[in-house]
Amino acid sequence: MQWWCSAEGQAWTWEWRAYPGVWVFVALSALAYYRLASNAMRETAADGVETDRVRLGPAIGGIVLLWAGLDWPLGALGAGYLASVHMLQYLLLALAAPPLLLIGLPARAIHRDGTGRWPRRLAIALSRPIPAVVLFVVVTAVTHIPMVVDRVMPSQLGSFALDLSWLVAGLLFWWSVIGPTGPGGNHPAPVKLLYLFPVILTHTVIAVYMVFARFPIYATYELAPPIGIVTALGDQQLAGGLMWVGGAPIMWGVMAFVFYRWSRAEMEPLDEIAISPPPI
Description:
The chain is mainly α.
């Protein structure tokens, strides 16, 4: 029994397979998420604030997408059979699940206060706009290099490291976009739109290379046992199209939420002035 999805080189069947490593990882992630949210709510309640709560919809959605992107069948298909499914995993783990998880957390849970143990301080440092964007772009570029993909996918540990790098880079990147104000202030939503352009450019370059390549560039998927859906080249072109077209709606959708939240925050002082009684 495998503990994580990796390229096995065996003929594909639709018979369900267990990947206990994925279950443990998702369960531990959900537990850590629950503890982080619970601690933040307790701290908020101690300060006399009652509005900072977990948003169950985004929180559950983020956990479900994380599980779907790692477990059977997407995890197994993406690990060693179809580049297009591998790209779908990237979209789920790096672009879709992280913002949902962050939106679901109470604001205090991701507040940049610069205190705590060294892992928290390191995470805060890497979630600043420039480090977060640079890290996300580097991780995205490196993990789509053919030599890297062909080296890591046959190994369970390598496949796990690749999936984890997408998730961590995605959390740090979206933290820089969604995270509330901390030391040094916070950029307004219109400025945060600029964070997307290096990512969009990186996606475009990778997608163009995959779509217009004359031959399959990933040996893992070119030599994989066929499953009777598309050719290796057609599968690669589909993967490039998913990155090109599929990533943008996710990013702009999250930014629309951030812009909406920013506009509401900007309007609150005006609403308070409007409802305040005039001085006598």
